Amino acid sequence: MAATHRLALLTALVTAAATLTAATATAAPERAAACNGYVGLTFDDGPSGNTTRLLDALRQNGLRATMFNQGQYAAANPSLVRAQVSAGMWVGNHSYTHPHLTQLGQAQIDSEISRTQQAVAGAGGGTPKLFRPPYGETNATVKSVAARHGLTEIIWHVDSQDWNGASTDAIVQAAGRLTNGQIILMHDWSANTLAAVPRIAQGLTARGLCAGMISPQTGRAVAPG
Ligand SMILES: [Zn+2]
């Protein structure tokens, strides 16, 4: 074999190996890189008619997330709460009817939170440890009632603005601003958010970040425990 032919063969082999490596990384992003940090993906207002599609997308892209369910929907759709858990998600409390809690008295706040704890647990979602007040609105009374139910209040570091009509591109870009430990607000019902899931996963993998759980102790995203 002439030297030029050996060189051509070597070049072809190296190219083939590089192509194979790239193909493997694309097929299994969750195994492509170590996790240099964790972020908390959160989806509010479910479960809904969109939940099954969202869970499929998250699972297909190797992502786990925290689902802040409304108690009224958990009570109406217990099988979807179980599906969230089966898909590896964590289930949090997002009040029962999504009121402006800061405009309610202590007894009504307690009712919103305690009925949701019961609805989620009754559906098989476990007793939530995380609470997100609707609209992120809180005060001392809301905090104290949540604490009395063993709940840690979780707001967010990054707002995807999916509730405000953000495009899929904008939602992907918002997720791209997350740093280690931070939490992003998204919604169960948003079609643009559903469409963004594969690109969110790709972006996190490219930055060495993984989707983690939210620690009830620190309120920050950590490795799933
Ligand atoms: Zn909400």
UniProtKB/TrEMBL annotation:
Keywords: Hydrolase, Metal-binding, Signal
Organism for this UniProt entry: Streptomyces purpurascens
Location of the NodB homology domain: 37-212
SUPFAM superfamilies: Glycoside hydrolase/deacetylase
Signal peptide: 1-27
Listed name of the protein: Polysaccharide deacetylase family protein
Keyword Signal listed: yes
Pfam families linked to this entry: Polysacc_deac_1 (PF01522)
InterPro entries: Glyco_hydro/deAcase_b/a-brl (IPR011330), NODB_dom (IPR002509), Polysacc_deacetylase_ArnD (IPR050248), TAT_signal (IPR006311)
